[in-house]
Structure formats: structure tokens, C-alpha cells
Amino acid sequence: MLLLFFLGVATSRCLHDEIQKSVSLLRPPSSQLPTDFRSSFLSLSRSSEPQPLRIQTYYKRDPISDGVWDPEGHEMRGRSRALAAVREATQRIQGLLAVPPVRGPLLLSRDPAQYCHAVWGDPDTPNYHRCSHLNPGYKGESCVGAKIPDAHLHGYALWPEHGPPQLIKPDGPGVQNTDFLLYVRVAHTAKCHQEPSAIAYAACCQLDSEDRPLAGTIVYCAQHLTSPSLSHSDIVMATLHELLHALGFSGQLFKKWRDCPSGFSIRENCSTRQQVTRRDKWGQLLLTTPTVSHSLAKHLGVQGVSLGVPLEEEGPLSSHWEARLLQGSIMAATFDGALRTRLDPITLAAFKDSGWYQVNHSAAEELLWGQGSGLEFGLVTTCETSSSGFFCTGSGLGCHYLHLDKGSCSSDPMLEGCRMYKQLANGSECWKKENGLPPGAENPHGEIYHSQSRCFLANLTSQLLPGDKTSSHPSQIPHLKGTELTGRCYLHQCTQKGEYKVQVEGSSWVSCLPGKAIQIPGYYGILYCPQGRLCQTKEGTNAVTHLPVSLPIQDQLFQLSLGLVGPPGHLLGKEQKEELAEVVLQALVNRGGTDRCYFHSWSITTRLVFTVHMWKSPGCQGPSVAMLYSTLTLTLQEKPLEIYYGDASFTTKYSKLLVTSDHNPSSFHEFLSMGLCLLLLILVGALGTVAYQKRATLQVGPSAHYHQEIHGTRAQLETKRSVILPRT
Ligand SMILES: *[C@@H]1O[C@H](CO)[C@@H](O)[C@H](O)[C@H]1NC(C)=O
Ligand SMILES: *[C@@H]1O[C@H](CO)[C@@H](O)[C@H](O)[C@H]1NC(C)=O
Ligand SMILES: *[C@@H]1O[C@H](CO)[C@@H](O)[C@H](O)[C@H]1NC(C)=O
Ligand SMILES: *[C@@H]1O[C@H](CO)[C@@H](O)[C@H](O)[C@H]1NC(C)=O
Q1: Residue 40 pLDDT greater than 70, yes or no
Q2: 3-class DSSP state for residue 516?
Q3: Beta-carbon neighbour count of residue 602 at 10 Å?
Q4: Atom 8 in ligand 1: residue holding the nearest Cα
């Protein structure tokens, strides 16, 4: 499920549903393994108390970028930015969503329609619906282009007509302490190419027995990760948006939402919801579940009314809130940058209504757009005449509704003709010092650009304009006659909740009375003080929005690279590389004496360079990651790792640890200059570059006499012994 993210005034089509539609959602089938071969744990027992959702991420290096020439370190920088964003987004989600934890290691399902060519079709035989004939072209499972390692998958077997089953692959070890597996790719995919404004897209691929999403992939369009126009917070917000799609906010998944009348913890009487969406009399699609309806009514100040929440029209399905009504929500289809986006209470309500999650509502961020504006708010028919102050008419200059930016009154396809003040493409942020006039320049309107500056409607003009030294009446100064109100940047300071004062260049602080126009000593004209928009946070004295903050030091990201040497001439296939990477990781975990929860997104290249990212997952017990880092550095210097895999042994030749402060690319240049860049020049051998395809070309086999198309009726089936599986 994709999402498109636009910055500035760009507009674009959203590909979200298109991606999710192309994925066949797998649910756990009845086991295809004989009991002796099954792993002993029951992975999806769901009776325990909800715990924060544990998301484990796996970075999947794309085959094309594996070892490709990368002199500027683009791939590495992109990957690091993506992983830093994923980490921050998953940590936020942990504070939001809780689920009954998956017991034992998480194992994903294999698609019988992929690995199996035909199943036994006679219900009276013990092997009914079991695989009778393998698909010789089976290439394993993948999720939106990310290959799922066998280690994460259930095994499968072939069941002959008589005699014992033949085990083809046993169950993998699975992934411990995990409720959702997220595969991460950074790539130039065809979709990225087709929609150049898409930052990332994601889809869910596997569901548990209650249809809760268990695994998904997020694909970052590589070119955006190296672009300076996106901040780290923008990428985090984009990631959060995508993850929320993959976790259940999706047109494809709405119909699977659950109703649990006995409460969240007692899962006994849960059933699929009868109705989740409907169309109102104007044909607008609405999400109608109780918590979202209540939450919207509260937001608009019309409590007691049961409203559905309008969804954006995006073709047959819809996976975003209607932008006219919920502008600035994380799940609206347009994205104006992290600063203007909120993880709003209505979106959180949707997750509660999914029935899969317990939601921490206190983590919601206030959505200013439309707050208290009543039932009629956001209708195409009312936006032109509304007095709410959120919409505008004409094309003048004013202030974006959050007052962080100046804006021009304009529309976009999601607004269906309604207009709002949208920030300008360039230099309209009042909170950016660098947008200000150069020192010494004339500043007749007394503007101040500063992190604490906000946009105000004003027509202030200095009484001390050069050349107008004699103070005369404004009407006698030609250019002051009837100066229109426009958006200007001035310093503000909250005094208490909803109250603030302002400062204009050269003036003292003046109290601003919300809803009133004030005068500023030394200036002609007025400044209009917005009501209900500034200083709304409970603490009062803090600024209205969170500006970008730097991360605390313990949030550093560590990357460890190990160069391995193996027997001469030893070549590894793709699957072997994955298995070897697992073995190396386990050796490293043992060496560090810690849990796996410090290690993320490991991979190994054809030239045997193993890379892993290190940070401490929430809930992870043990020393700080910095401590583990120094332990590993020391012990790896003292004694190389020895790894046995297959019949070969591998040792670490060198190790490199890299610390980054997340979104600071400069440390990567350092890393490169340390000498590892040489490794990037080496092209992959033939084995490493074999591109995998989701599905081999497979004919529905006409030859074998005992096979039969599955499309027949039940009566037909009973006379046949084996059935060809439909390809999805
Ligand atoms: C709920 O969210 C609040 C605000 O983000 C946070 O302080 C708190 O720790 C969260 N609670 C849980 C159980 O995660
Ligand atoms: C589940 O539903 C049945 C039948 O309506 C009822 O008897 C039972 O008490 C319910 N269980 C819970 C835990 O509410
Ligand atoms: C935006 O800024 C750039 C560089 O300062 C400038 O060249 C361009 O003309 C500006 N565009 C607009 C629309 O103001
Ligand atoms: C500023 O705007 C107000 C309201 O539109 C108007 O009455 C006043 O004359 C303007 N003042 C100047 C100095 O332009």
C-alpha cells in the first residue's frame, strides 16, 4: 500500500491501493508439515495481556545494488537514512499500539499456490488438500519485492499417495520476540520511476489467524533519501504513514477489521465487523466504525452525533482520510512535511476499531484543522462561505492555518475546489532564520524570522521609513494608503494556554489578544492576533509546534561491518548467503553476550562483507548499545570470530564500527575514507546477481492424468484425486 508524498504545491496520484491490491495476503494455512517435523511451539496463541507491538526490521539489499559501484556512498547513506527513520517510526508505534504478544518465534506462511502445483482432491483420503505435486519453479516467498528468508518461513512437504511424506524444507527458526516483521528496501523501482514524488510505499503481505497484519515491506524510493529537500523528520513521518497502512489502515484491510464485544483482552467473541464503510447520500465514502465516528464528532464539537469519517476518493478503494476534513492528519493523502502533520486522535481511533490493537490514546497529537467547526465543516458546498477561517477564497497571501508559514490561497485535486492558505514553495517559513532579510537591508514591515516567529495577518509599516523622517499622517504617505492585510513573520511568545505576546523589529513585546487586531508602537497599521491557533499546548509556554529537534546521544546508530575470509574459491548462492549471515549474526550475539534485540538488518555481500545495524529495541534488556559496541570492538580485536557453515570455516579478517548520529551523512564520508570504499568497487559474481522472480513460469499441468483444475464443482472434485491450485 503505497503512499505518495508530496511536498510544496506538487500534486500527485496516490498508488497506495494499487500496490496492496497486487499482493496476495497470506493467512496461516493448516500445517503442511507432518507432525514430527513441525516446530514444537504454537506461534499464534493470543490469550495473554497486550504488550507494545514489537516490530522487527530486516533490510533487504536489492540484488542490483549489492556490491554495485557506489563511490559517493549513496546506497549506504540512503540505507542509513531509511533505517534511522524506520527505527524512530517503529519506536513511536510501540508507544501507540499493543497486541497480545506472539508466543514463540514468529514464522510466516508459504503460499501453497506458489510452491505446490497440485493437491490431493479426495476429501476421504488422509492427504486431502495436501501437496501432491511440487511446483518445480518455486523460488520461495517474497513480499513487495523483498525475498523472505527461509529462516522466517514455515517448511513444506510433499505427500505421496502412499507412504510417508517427503520433507522438502523444515520450519525455519523463525523470529523471536516479534509481532510484526518489516522488510525494508531502498530501490529505484518502476513505481518510483512512475511516480517521482513518491518517497516510499508499503504493503502488508501476511495476516495472522485473526487477520492482524504480521509482515509487510516498505520500499523507499532511493532518490528521495539522498535529496536534501527532505529532513529526517519528514522521512520518519512518511515511514510512520506507510507503516500505519501496512498495520491495517488500508482499503484492502478495512473489511477484515474485527469487532470484539467482550473487550480487547477477551478475544473469545470477536468477529469480522458487519459494516466498516458506507456511502452517504452524496456518494461520499465514509468509515463508519464507532470509535472513529465518535472521535470525529468530538473533534468538530458536535458530540452525540454519529458521523462517519469521510475517506478520500481514490478509485474503488480508499486508504486515506478526506483532505478537506482532516487536512494535516498523518493518514491524509497529501503530505506537507513533518512539521505540518499530526498523528491525530481520529487515526488512532481507527486502530482501535480495527479490533487488532489496544491503542494508547494519550499519544495522539492535537489536530487543529477544523477543530470545533461543526457538522458542516469541510463540505464542498460550505467551504467557500464558511467563517471557520480554515478555508479562504481568492488567491491572496495570508498565513497557513498553523501559522508557521506564510501561504497563498490555493487549491489542489484533493480539495475539490475548496481553497486554503498553502505554504509557498520557497522561503515562506517564518521559523527559519535564513528566510529573513540580509542584515542592514530595509525592513519596512518590521518582520522577524526566528524559530519562535509565526505568521500574522498584518499591514504594519514602519513610521521611520528612510526619506520619511518627518512623522506625517499615514494618509499623506502615498504608499501607505489602504495597505492590505497580508501574511508577515513576527516573533511570538506564549504567556499561557491560548495567550501570547508579539514582537516586531525594534518594538517591545506587545500582548496579543486572540481574535483582536492590535497596534504596534512605531508602526502604522494593524496586526491581527489569531484565535485558537497559537500556544494551544497544555504547557502553554512552549511554542505551538515541535520544530526539528536533534536526537539524544543514546539514540545513535551503530553499524558494524565484518570482512570474512573463507576457503579459497568458495562461492555462495543467494540462499547460502542468507544462511551464512544468520550464522555470523548468531556468533556475534554469542560474542556480545546479549540478546538479538540489539541487532537489526543484517546482510552479507558476495565478497563476504557482513553488515549489521545496532540499536536497542524498546523492551530490550541489557547494557546500552554504546556499551555493547565497545565490548564488541575489544573482543573482535583480541580474537576474530570463527564461523562454521556448511563444511567450510570462515574467520573475520577485520571489523569496522561506524557510529552515526542518524541523519548526519558526514560520518559516512569518514567511513568511506577509512578504506572500506574499496569493497564497494567490487562487482558481484554471477551467483550474487541472479535476479529472483516471484514466480517461475509455470503451466497448469495438463499432462499428469490424475490432476484436475480446481475450478470444478465439489461433486466433480470428489471423483478426482488431485487438484491443480489456482495461481493468484
Ligand atoms: C502512551 O503515550 C504517552 C505519550 O506519548 C507515553 O508517554 C506513554 O508512555 C505511552 N504509554 C505506553 C503504555 O506506551
Ligand atoms: C461470548 O458469547 C456467548 C454467547 O453469546 C456468551 O454466552 C459468552 O458469555 C460470551 N463470552 C464473553 C467472554 O463475553
Ligand atoms: C526559490 O528560491 C530560488 C533560490 O533562492 C530562486 O532561484 C527561485 O526563483 C525561488 N522561487 C520562487 C518561486 O520564489
Ligand atoms: C491596515 O488594514 C486595516 C484593515 O484592513 C485598514 O483599516 C488600515 O487602513 C490599514 N492601515 C494601513 C496603514 O494600511
Answers
A1: no
A2: coil
A3: 20
A4: 95
**Residue closest by Cα to atom 7 of ligand 2:** 269
* Per-domain residue ranges of the chain: 20-247, 275-378, 558-702
Q: Which of 343, 362, 365 to mutate to test the pocket of ligand 1 (most atoms within 8 A of CB)?
A: 362
CA of 459 to the centre of ligand 4 (A): 6
Cell 508505534 -> residue? 93
**By alpha-carbon position, which residue is closest to atom 1 of ligand 4?**
525
| Exposed e or buried b per residue across 528-557, where buried means at least 16 C-beta atoms within 10 angstroms of its C-beta | bbbeebbbebeeeeebbbeeeeeeeeebbb
Hey, which of 445, 459, 475 would you mutate to test ligand 4's pocket, going by the most ligand atoms within 8 Å of its Cβ?
A: 459
- Predicted confidence (pLDDT) per residue in 366-377, tens digit: 999 999 999 889
Cβ 360 under 6 angstroms from ligand 1: yes
**Global confidence as pTM:** 0.76
pLDDT at position 47 is 57
- Equal CATH topology for 20-247 and 275-378: no
pLDDT at position 725 over 80: no
If you measure from the C-alpha of residue 436 to the centroid of ligand 4, how many angstroms do you get, rounded to a whole number? 24
Q: What is the pLDDT of residue 563?
A: 83
Is the distance from CB of 210 to CB of 192 less than 8 angstroms?
A: no
Residue showing cell 504488550: 51
| CA of 135 relative to ligand 1 center, distance in Å | 48
Does 695 have pLDDT greater than 50? no
Among the ranges given (133-147, 421-435, 667-681), the one the predictor scored with the smallest mean pLDDT = 667-681
- List all residues whose CB is within 6 A of at least one atom of ligand 4: 459, 461, 474, 480, 482-483, 485, 524-526
> Of 406-420, 454-468, 691-705, which gets the smallest average pLDDT?
691-705
How many angstroms separate the Cα of 399 from the Cα of each of 6, 416, 428, 500, 501? 20, 21, 9, 17, 18
CA of 426 to the centre of ligand 3 (A): 6
Q: Let me know if domain 20-247 sits in CATH 3.10.170.20.
A: yes
Q: Which residues, other chains included, contact 264 with Cβ-Cβ below 8 Å and sequence gap of 6+?
A: 50, 355, 358
d(CA 220, CA 189): 9
Whole-angstrom Cα distance, residue 314 to residue 283?
Answer: 13
Active site residues: 242
225: left (phi over 0), alpha (psi -120 to 50) or beta: alpha
**Fold topology of 275-378:** Leishmanolysin; domain 2 (3.90.132)
Cell output for 465: 521609513
